[in-house]
């Protein structure tokens, strides 16, 4: 990490410190703030859903109270109880008694039902089939047995029953009401004698108004203590999974509940509110997708704003750093000119601080280099006619290796290890180039040559060229044409990297593939240089493939075409060279050759 940091220019090192010290904490606190905002919006949505559910529960309890009060009025009616007891005890009831019952109790029942819009019917079922029915109040046992809530045991019938159809009459022409809810009670005389069953019913949509008010954002239901869920099964835009509701809510708990559920259909706020007058409570599920999308949009806008402000802040700090390092960059510019072999550059006076001392040292070094160069030129002029001609006539490979070895030893004696390493790389490079015993070499030998070549090329530039090799071991012993990678590397340096004001990277990657259903492997060489436009890439690929005439005025692409021709010559037309590039991003050259099992 430290070495990577030191590779940056001083300006970017200082800028990175500013980013770490100021921008990272700012971004952290912004994320915390956005999370708090999202959490507060979620809590507000939960409170809104709970408040709406509480209001609905109050209305339901008020509607249920109408059935409870009606039941109590019937059970406490002394005249009605006495008449019912007389019907039970006396098998034969005269017409005058029946007429009196109809004029008093039935008329009172009709008045009660008509004056209370929340009631559907109030009926009494006698536990006998011989009782004379007086509609719409008094019915016999056969009528009671048709109702869905009927059970042989009285205790099982008592209580609330929900969402059933009125089956009092079998005739299809009779418009029996659907979706009823009723409170069923046993009728007893004041001395404890069982008289019959009292049914006070209402419609589900009157008892639970919200069950029929579903929309695309809200779903409502009624959950009983025994785990039954009632809801509108008609035109419902959407329904959450009932199993998810039942697994998350407990209708036996006497306090409100809420949770957030995520399903394949979306994200919901699930709320439960218990009802004191009914065996269960109301449930509601509110869709959060739209609200969450709004929260996410707000977060994205805020993050975008923070990022833009951070970029502006970095640019401002960069300008300040440029002003502070202006004198330093003057010295750096002079050093770059010297590296470009311009020894006549004038190094400005920059003061007596550390930068001034550096400038003075570089100025003295430049003057010394100029003297050495002048002496070297004079020496070269003296030996030009003799030594160079002798070398041209007598040079051979062994002589070159011996001379390079001597230079290496001299450099090591003078502790010039950089020169020694460079001479070693040059010797290996020359030895590989002059040894041409076979037109094919292994990938490992070719990569070793590339390493030496890159090592020498680094001496020419004031920036670093990093070489990354990712080749599987199984490919190192495979054969490729000799000197097939070097032209690609050279092309990457001269046409892609040279002239860039920063360090560059060349990556060599290899992997196995298939060509015409045969085993092959591919080597990709990618540089982080200036890349090419689409038009330049097309023109270069056409020249490599021989689809365009050679341009004598341009040497770009000649080396790549030679590599292409040699690959095709050795392995056939199916194996070739391909180029991919993106302007100001990268250039990638790949070659594909057959894979041979060892």
Automatic annotation (TrEMBL):
Stored InterPro entries: Bact_2-comp_sensor_kinase, HAMP_dom, HATPase_C_sf, HATPase_dom, Sig_transdc_His_kin_internal
Domain HAMP positions: 322-374
Main location: membrane
Taxon lineage: Bacteria, Bacillati, Bacillota, Clostridia, Eubacteriales
Source taxon at top rank: Bacteria
Protein location: Membrane
Record keyword Cytoplasm present: no
GO molecular function per UniProt: kinase activity
Keywords carried by this UniProt record: Kinase, Membrane, Phosphoprotein, Transferase, Transmembrane, Transmembrane helix
Entry keyword Membrane: yes
Transmembrane domains' residue ranges: 12-34, 301-321
Stated name of the protein: Sensor histidine kinase
């Amino acid at each position: 990490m430290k070495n990577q940091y030191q590779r940056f220019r001083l300006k970017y090192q200082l800028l990175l410190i500013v980013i770490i010290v100021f921008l990272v904490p700012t971004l952290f606190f912004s994320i915390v703030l956005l999370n708090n905002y999202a959490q507060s919006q979620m809590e507000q949505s939960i409170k809104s859903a709970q408040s709406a559910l509480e209001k609905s529960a109050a209305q339901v309890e008020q509607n249920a109270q109408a059935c409870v009060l009606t039941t109590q009025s019937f059970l406490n009616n002394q005249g009605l109880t006495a008449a019912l007891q007389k019907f039970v005890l006396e098998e034969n009831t005269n017409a005058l008694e029946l007429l009196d019952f109809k004029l008093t109790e039935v008329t009172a029942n009709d008045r009660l039902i008509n004056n209370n819009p929340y009631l559907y019917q109030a009926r009494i079922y006698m536990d006998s089939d011989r009782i004379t029915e007086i509609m719409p109040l008094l019915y016999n046992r056969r009528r009671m047995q048709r109702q869905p809530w009927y059970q042989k045991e009285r205790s099982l019938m008592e209580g609330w029953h929900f969402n059933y159809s009125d089956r009092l009459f079998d005739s299809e022409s009779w418009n029996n009401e659907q979706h009823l809810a009723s409170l069923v009670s046993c009728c007893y005389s004041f001395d404890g004698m069982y008289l019959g069953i009292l049914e006070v019913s209402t419609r589900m949509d009157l008892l639970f108004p919200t069950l029929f008010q579903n929309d695309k954002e809200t779903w409502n239901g009624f959950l009983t203590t025994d785990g039954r869920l009632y809801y509108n099964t008609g035109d419902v835009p959407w329904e959450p999974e009932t199993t998810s509701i039942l697994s998350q809510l407990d209708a036996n708990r006497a306090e409100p509940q809420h949770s957030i559920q995520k399903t394949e259909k979306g994200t919901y706020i699930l709320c439960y509110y218990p009802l004191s007058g009914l065996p269960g409570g109301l449930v509601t599920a509110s869709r959060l997708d739209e609200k969450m999308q709004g929260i996410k949009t707000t977060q994205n806008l805020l993050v975008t704003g923070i990022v833009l402000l951070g970029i502006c802040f970095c640019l401002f700090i960069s300008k300040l750093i440029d002003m502070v390092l202006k004198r330093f960059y003057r010295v750096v510019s002079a050093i770059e000119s010297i590296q470009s072999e311009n020894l006549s550059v004038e190094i400005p006076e920059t003061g007596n601080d550390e930068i001034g001392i550096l400038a003075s040292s570089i100025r003295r070094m430049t003057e010394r280099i100029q003297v050495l160069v002048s002496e070297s030129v004079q020496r070269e002029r003296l030996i030009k006619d003799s030594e160079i001609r002798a070398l041209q006539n007598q040079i051979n490979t062994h002589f070159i290796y011996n001379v390079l070895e001597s230079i290496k030893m001299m450099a090591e004696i003078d502790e010039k290890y950089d020169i020694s390493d460079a001479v070693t790389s040059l010797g290996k490079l020359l030895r590989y180039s002059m040894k041409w015993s076979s037109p094919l070499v292994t990938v490992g030998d070719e990569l070793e040559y590339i390493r030496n070549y890159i090592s020498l090329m680094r001496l020419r530039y004031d920036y670093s060229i990093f070489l990354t090799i990712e080749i599987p071991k199984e490919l190192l012993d495979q054969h490729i044409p000799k000197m097939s990678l070097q032209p690609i590397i050279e092309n990457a340096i001269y046409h892609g990297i040279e002239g860039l004001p920063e360090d560059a990277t060349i990556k060599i990657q290899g992997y196995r593939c298939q060509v015409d259903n045969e085993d092959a492997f591919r080597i990709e060489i990618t540089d982080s240089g200036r890349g090419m436009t689409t038009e330049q890439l097309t023109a270069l690929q056409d020249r490599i493939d021989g689809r365009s005439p050679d341009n004598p005025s341009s040497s770009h692409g000649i080396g790549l075409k030679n590599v292409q021709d040699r690959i095709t010559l050795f392995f056939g037309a199916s194996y070739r060279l391909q180029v991919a590039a993106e302007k100001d991003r990268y250039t990638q050259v790949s070659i594909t050759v057959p894979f041979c099992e060892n």
